[in-house]
Amino acid sequence: MNTHKKIIVPLDVPDLQSAIALVDRLPLVDFWKVGLELFTSSGPAILEVLKSRQKRIFLDLKFHDIPNTVAGACCAAAGYGVDLLTIHATAGQDALKAAWSAVQEGALQAGVKPPQLIAITLLTSISSRQLAIDLKVPLELPEYALAMALMAQECGLSGAVCSPQEVAQLRQICGDDFLLVCPGIRPSWARKADQKRSLTPAEAILAGADYLVIGRPITGSDDPQLAWNQIVEELTTLA
Ligand SMILES: O=c1ccn([C@@H]2O[C@H](COP(=O)(O)O)[C@@H](O)[C@H]2O)c(=O)[nH]1
Question: What confidence tens digit (pLDDT) does each residue in 1-54 have?
Fold first, then answer.
């Protein structure tokens, strides 16, 4: 796969107009992420815009609820014909299994290909200290992220969202067929902001990530096209 196809850019903007402007500004981006901000403000309209331009879509709604509710949401989301969809692993085994079944059902009903359902292991904005002190989780962070990924795998999910700092371990244990998508990516020249467990794009790919989610270093730059080109160039030197 061309290196630029491994980069997913989030449309973390407040409205549909800003989202379309960003898509127009970055014509070489093939894979876009629609998340909570845009979907809550503007609904699914952006999905049709992206599809009409033959873009791939990661619908990152991070479902987290009881099994019956996540199943209903996943059934509806699968009907949009997106490529990737997220649920929090901490929704638990019953919810993950119900979500997986609902994705197949929703896609079948809509006559579209089912999205790959992937589980959030632990948000990349959480540090080891916050996991222990705020969330009261008594495991070491890498052990916890691995446990969440393995649970998702056992429940039939296609992959996981993890920080690049855990991706090598997850790749080794979950195997090559398990999709690993990494946000928290920061080129050496970019600000980390709220991301706590980051690596550079090249480091993340070398560690085994399938896809990199890279937002503000590109979209918050004065020249998004230049930032995109710099990242693609960094990755091309690996190929
Ligand atoms: O653990 C997670 C899960 C999802 N995200 C999302 O990825 C992007 C990252 O954007 P940046 O601007 O590159 O920080 C954003 O849409 C998050 O909702 C994450 O960061 N961490």
Answer: 788 999 999 999 999 999 999 999 999 999 999 999 999 999 999 999 999 999
If you search the block for the tokens 């008594």, which residue do you land on? 138
Separation between Cα atoms, residue 176 and residue 229, nearest integer Å: 28
**Does the Cβ of 162 fall within 6 Å of ligand 1?**
no
- Write out pLDDT tens, residues 48-80: 999 999 999 999 999 999 999 999 999 999 999
Is residue 62 annotated as a catalytic residue, yes or no? Answer: yes
* Per-residue confidence (pLDDT) for residue 158, from 0 to 100: 98
Cβ–ligand 1 distance for 12 under 6 Å, the answer: yes
Check pocket membership of 195 for ligand 1, CB cut-off 6 A.
yes
Closest atom of ligand 1 to CA, residue 162: 1
pTM of the predicted protein model:
0.98
162 has a pLDDT exceeding 80:
yes
